[in-house]
C-alpha cells in the first residue's frame, strides 16, 4: 500500500500574498500500533510547508508545536487556521527560518484537533473515536511524523525544533532517529515529565472529565450536541497560570478589580478577567478530548523509558544541540534544561533566557529565541 499525500508539498519559495503554508494531509499507509498496544487505523496527519526541499534534501526543518498549537506556524488566520501563525517571528523572509533557504515542515500532532487524527475524528466504523482514542506518548507522535518525513522525501532533518510539548517530540526524534537529526533546538521542555508537572495537569483533566457535558469522552455524538466547555475553560485557566510568572501577573494586574466590577459584590479582579478571556478563546477553537489526550501525552513523556534511563537515552543523541530555558518558567524550570544540556553529548551549556513571562517566554522573547536559532544554524552539524 502506498502513502497518500492529499495535495502535493509546496513548491517554489515564499512570495508575499501567495498564501504560503496551506494545510495538506498525509494518510498513513498502514495501521499505527502505539506504545499502549492499541492500534489506530485510518490515521492522517495535517501539515504545512514553506519553501522548497533542496535536490540533496539538506535544507529540511521540522517545527513542532506545543499543547494547543497546530501546523500553522506563520501566516494569517483563515480556513483551517483558527488563529494567526504562532511562531511568525521565526519563519518568513529575513527571519531565521527563511523559506528562500529552508524547507520548513510543521505537522499537527497526532491526537490533535486541527486536521490530524484525534478523538474528534471519524474512526473506521464511521463514528467519532471519542473515548476509544488511546493514550499516546511523544514517541507515538514521532512514529507518525517519521512516515510524513518519508513521504516528503526527507531522509535527514537539518534541524528539529520545538518548545514545551514540541520540545518533548523534538527530543524523541533525536533519541529515536539519531541518524535523521543534524541539529536539535529544545526550548522550555524536560527529558521526562516530573511529579510536579503531572500534578499541574491532574486538575485540568479532572475539570474536563467532571463536566456533565463530557459524556465519558463520547460527547461528539451525544444527543444534546454540547460538550465539556466549562471544564475545558477551567482547565485552560489552571494551565495559563502555569504558563506565566507570578511576577508578571503582579506587575500587570496586582490586586486591581476589573474595570467596572467590584470583587466584593460578585465582580472580578483584573487577573480573573484575564484568565476568563484566555479560557473563552481556547473553548472556541480546541477540542476537549484532544486537550485530555495531549495532556496525558505530556504526562507520559520520558525519553529514558525502555532505554536504560534518561542519561542513557540522552547519550544516544548525536545532533548538534542547543537547549534553552526561561528564567521564570515555573512549569518546566531551568534545572530541567540544565540536566538535558549536561547529558546530551552534542550540547553546550543550557542557555537561559532572562524573561518575566514565565513558560510562555519561549514564544514571546522572539529576538533572543531567534538569535539562538541563528547561532545553531550557523554551527557545523554533529
Can you tell me the number of structural domains?
2
Q: Which architecture of the largest domain does the CATH hierarchy give at level 2?
A: 3-Layer(aba) Sandwich
Here the CATH topology of the largest domain equals: Rossmann fold
- Roughly what percent helix? 25-40%
Number of strands: 11
Secondary structure tally, helices? 11
Mean pLDDT: 93
The percent range for strand residues is 5-15%
Could you give a short account of the major beta sheet?
9 strands, mixed
> Briefly, what CATH class of the largest domain?
Alpha Beta
End-to-end span in angstroms? 35 Å
Largest beta sheet: strand ordering: 1-2-5-7-6-8-9-10-11
SSE run: EEEEEEEHEHEHHHHHHEHEHH
Tell me the radius of gyration: 20 Å
CATH superfamily of the largest domain: Alpha/Beta hydrolase fold, catalytic domain
Low-confidence stretches: 7-20
Shape: globular
Find the structural class using helix and strand composition: alpha/beta
Amino acid at each position: 500500500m502506498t502513502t497518500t499525500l492529499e495535495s502535493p508539498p509546496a513548491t517554489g519559495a515564499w512570495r508575499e500574498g501567495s498564501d504560503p503554508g496551506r494545510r495538506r494531509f498525509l494518510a498513513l499507509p498502514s495501521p499505527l500500533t502505539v506504545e499502549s498496544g492499541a492500534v489506530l487505523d485510518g490515521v492522517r496527519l495535517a501539515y504545512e510547508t514553506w519553501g522548497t526541499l533542496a535536490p540533496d534534501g539538506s535544507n529540511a526543518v521540522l517545527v513542532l508545536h506545543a499543547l494547543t498549537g497546530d501546523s500553522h506556524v506563520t501566516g494569517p488566520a483563515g480556513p483551517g487556521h483558527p488563529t494567526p501563525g504562532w511562531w511568525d517571528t521565526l519563519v518568513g523572509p529575513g527571519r531565521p527560518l527563511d523559506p528562500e533557504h529552508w524547507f520548513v515542515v510543521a505537522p499537527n500532532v497526532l491526537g490533535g484537533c486541527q486536521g490530524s487524527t484525534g478523538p474528534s475524528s471519524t474512526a473506521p466504523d464511521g463514528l467519532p473515536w471519542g473515548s476509544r482514542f488511546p493514550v499516546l506518548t511523544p514517541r507515538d507522535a514521532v512514529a507518525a511524523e517519521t512516515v510524513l518525513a518519508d513521504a516528503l522525501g526527507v531522509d535527514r532533518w537539518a534541524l528539529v525544533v520545538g518548545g514545551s510539548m514540541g520540545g518533548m517530540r523534538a527530543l524523541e526524534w533525536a533519541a529515536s532517529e539519531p541518524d535523521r537529526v543534524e541539529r536539535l533546538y529544545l526550548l522550555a521542555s524536560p527529558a521526562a515529565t516530573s511529579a510536579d508537572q503531572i500534578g499541574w495537569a491532574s486538575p485540568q483533566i479532572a475539570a474536563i472529565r467532571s463536566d456533565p457535558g463530557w459524556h465519558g469522552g463520547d460527547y461528539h455524538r451525544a444527543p444534546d450536541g454540547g460538550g465539556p466547555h466549562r471544564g475545558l475553560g477551567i482547565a485552560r485557566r489552571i494551565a495559563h497560570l502555569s504558563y506565566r510568572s507570578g511576577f508578571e501577573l503582579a506587575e500587570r494586574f496586582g490586586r486591581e478589580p476589573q474595570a467596572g466590577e467590584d470583587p466584593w459584590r460578585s465582580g472580578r479582579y483584573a487577573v480573573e478577567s484575564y484568565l476568563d478571556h484566555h479560557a473563552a478563546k481556547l473553548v472556541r477553537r480546541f477540542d476537549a478530548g484532544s486537550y485530555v489526550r495531549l495532556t496525558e501525552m505530556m504526562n507520559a513523556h520520558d525519553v529514558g523509558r525502555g532505554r536504560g534511563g534518561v542519561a542513557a537515552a540522552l547519550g544516544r543523541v548525536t545532533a548538534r544541540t542547543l537547549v534553552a530555558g526561561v528564567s521564570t518558567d515555573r512549569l518546566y524550570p531551568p534545572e530541567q534544561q540544565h540536566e538535558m544540556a549536561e547529558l546530551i553529548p552534542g550540547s553546550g551549556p543550557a542557555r537561559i533566557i532572562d524573561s518575566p513571562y514565565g513558560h510562555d517566554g519561549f514564544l514571546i522573547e522572539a529576538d533572543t529565541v531567534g538569535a539562538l536559532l541563528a547561532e545553531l544554524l550557523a554551527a557545523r552539524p554533529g
